[in-house]
Amino acid sequence: MRFSTTGYSQGFYLAASFLTLFLLMVPTPANTYPRKDAAQFQRSIVDYRSRLNPRFKKIKRQKTKYIIVHTAELGRQTTLRVVSQGKRFRNGRHTPGGHAHYVIARDGRTYRILDKQYVADHAGISMWDGDTGISQLSIGIELVGYHYAAITDAQYRSVGLLIGILQGVYGLDDRAVLTHSQVAFGYPNRWHRKNHRGRKRCAKNFDRTKAGLGPTWRYDPDVRAGRLVADQQLAAVYYSPRNFIAVAEEANVISKKNTAWVIAGEDFDSSATVYKFPDGRIFTGDQIAAEVGWHLLPAKTVVLLNQEVSVEKLKDDGPVKTIADGVTAWSLAGRSYNRETTIYFLPSGRIKTGSVIDDWDDLPVQTKLIIGYKGPFELRIDQSAYRIAGKGYKDANTIYYLPSRQLVRGHHIKDFTQLQLGTLVFLPTG
Questions:
Q1: Of 336, 342, 339, 298, nearest in space to 320 by CA
Q2: By the 8 A CB rule, do 342 and 310 touch?
Q3: What band does 430 get if pLDDT is binned at 50, 70 and 90?
Q4: Which end of the chain is more exposed for a tag (fewer CB within 10 A), N or C?
Q5: Strand, helix or coil at 291?
Q6: To the nearest whole number, what is the mean pLDDT of the chain?
Q7: Is 344 helix (H, G, I), strand (E, B) or coil?
Q8: Where, residue-wise, is CATH 3.40.80.10 in the chain?
């Protein structure tokens, strides 16, 4: 008995074609680091879990749908303390920590803060595709740095490896990897009448391709569904048809377009947000409305987020600035941090120009810096302050570094004949 295989073959090829098309349409992780690299990376993770605040209550996560990438808006040491021990506020309130599962420093070193099976308090008021309370559904990864500063290649490699591992554990595709600024939303305020995106700017500078991630959402599902109002700046970053990638910029400085809301999001009026005016005055976010007025915020005001230290400690002696807990070389100098004209005075007594600084997060607390200077010029028997600086030798912007390691501005020196030989003079480049 003979029978025809034509119909069978056609059916088989038709089914195979549909299967192939289906597989091509299903999003899959683009991250393809070798297994050897992933295993080596896992062994290199620093176990920081013993530093977790004992007040933090561990709750097992019931479902994992997302991986959320953050920028810490702080340096390494402060980030590690805040995410593990908790945030401290000037009114005495503090949180119990557990604000991330992982922290990745600028050199790529990765820290495990909380076991991935537990809920971390990292996303706050959040929504994605109708899901709310994203902390309950996600892994949180903090990148040391700022949303207006470049993320390092070492960080991209580490976060790419980590995401790839987590995707394998939870069966997630690249569309499940989002940034905090994508999922955060805010309730109505002075800037918005409705629930809205833009509550956070966190990780808007995250370049997915550098982390080895493939295509993602082309639209905000909650804006499209009418649940939220779009933030135009974030929409341009994430969903522009030109595939726009946020460029790192000195975005913590107030300008006509760079408003307090654009820089700080919902934290614009927080007591932990500090505004440093061009004239040297300092206000916290909760003081601006009553003492200044938001419409009178001057251009070139520097905005510092997540500040826990006393406002007095943030005051500069004119051009002399100080790195402190929560205040880094980047937040003070921006892109100028590694220029020849930015000069650092380390607590050890060493003096370095920005051109020899590997990274802004490598500098210790209490390092002082001046921006836009040349020098040093040494006081000698044949070289007086006047000969070095001319008529500007006693100006407020002429800086003297005494052998006692003290920085003194020219107008504070009463008797120049008493200056010790070997004193170093620094002059504004302008």
A1: 342
A2: no
A3: confident
A4: N
A5: helix
A6: 89
A7: strand
A8: 35-239
Residues in a beta bridge with 374: 427
CA-wise closest residue to 248 among 389, 169, 143, 129: 143
Which tokens is 11 given?
């059916």
> Under the phi-then-psi rule, with left for phi > 0, alpha for psi from -120 to 50, and beta for the rest, what region is 129?
left
The pLDDT tens digits of the residues spanning 290-316 come to 999 998 999 989 898 888 777 776 777
Nearest residue to 96 via CA among 120, 123, 68, 73: 120
CATH code that applies to domain 35-239: 3.40.80.10
SS3 content of the chain, % helix, strand, coil (to 5): 35, 20, 45
Where does 286-388 show beta strands of DSSP type E?
302-304, 321-322, 342-345, 351-353, 368-371, 373-378
Which two structure tokens, joined as six digits, stand for 244? 């726009």
Q: What is the Cα 14 distance to its own chain's centre?
A: 51
User: pLDDT per residue over 271-297, tens digit each?
Assistant: 889 999 988 899 999 999 999 999 899
- Token pair for residue 82? 């805040």
Backbone angles phi, psi at 378, to 5 degrees: -95, 135
Q: Determine the length of the chain.
A: 430
d(CA 175, CA 217): 6
